[in-house]
Amino acid sequence: MTDTLARAAAERPLDGIKVLELGQLIAGPFAGSMLAYFGADVIKIEPPGDGDPLRKWRVMKGDTSLWWRSMGRNKRCITLDLRRDEGRAIARRLMDQVDVVIENFRPGTLEKWGMHPDRLRETNPGLVLARISGYGQTGPYASRPGFASVCEGIGGFRHINGFPGEAPVRPNLSMGDTLAALHAVIGILLALVRRGRVGRDGGQVVDVAIYEAVFNMLESVVPEFDGAGVVRAPSGSTLTGIVPTNTYRCADGKFVIIGGNNDSIFRRLMNAIGRADMAEDPRLGDNPGRVAHQAEVDGAIAEWTGGQASDHVLAVLEEAAVPAGPIYDVADMMSDPHFQARGLFERVEVDGEPLAIPAFVPALATTPGRTDWPGPALGSHTDEVLGGVLGLSGAEIAELRDRGVV
Known about the structure:
By secondary structure, the chain is of the alpha/beta class. It contains 19 helices and 13 strands.
């Protein structure tokens, strides 16, 4: 067997798990993509016509976004008009055939369509229903529309991201959506583990809120406020209360990140930059002392990096076993031998041309994930799924297509 065939036949941890994805854009589809990568059979429902809006977002090649080729990987894509009774009836039948349903509509939408979780469990008691929304399925804000940008604000992330006295900074990514998707995957896997213990009737709802996924990343913010009245504020390129950990400009105009906040690492750092006096300074021997003299510490490091090229800075610090690294863009990542050695890029073929898409992590030694195909054309698997899963005849599918249901 060739390496390619062996990889295609290799076991994956979610082989045999069936998933129905109803979501659009980022949070729900990202969760579905990750499950599909690790072996789940993911059937994605899209509206007839334009499909998931992500197909047209950002950089296009031909009539399809390049993002879609990554997000839609390994999914069997069907079209179904959920605004119509016939479409909802077909979706309802599919829900009885799967282990997991992922949806990221506004709370109440499934209920409006006659798909209340309790009704779904009547015919599929083992169903894990993952519901992703801005503010969760309950509470006074549940009905609000919740985009990632807004939820990153109320969830506490934007307040601490940026520079003091300036407008909070948004990273050029939809972090809230991706964090919510990761929490959804965790919740789905936890629910499946529990179902495996109690039996096939052990389904449950996984309620994921984008703002809560952001909130979950806030480390010590809550106990520090409740226990000491401290409100963590934005700190630019530093980390409040830990010194030194900062971004420093080098002589070639590039920036490097240096983390020397461990006591022994700090001493190695200062010796490496020619400041043995500071390495042995009792005022700077522990983190509280360095915090009290942060400007002095950062100033000394910045003075040294400002007189050296970034490559030299990183080489010196690597030799001294001081954590440091460059700030990469995507071109840097794709040319870096470590990224390549770790298998972080996979090649697919789209319309006869190769395309790199990111692999999913974590890397599993025995049952790794893989990309079997890129995001397919709209409705590519409609006949296959409706015929193979639900047993509809070709004539029945053709009639649904004529009426615009699929």
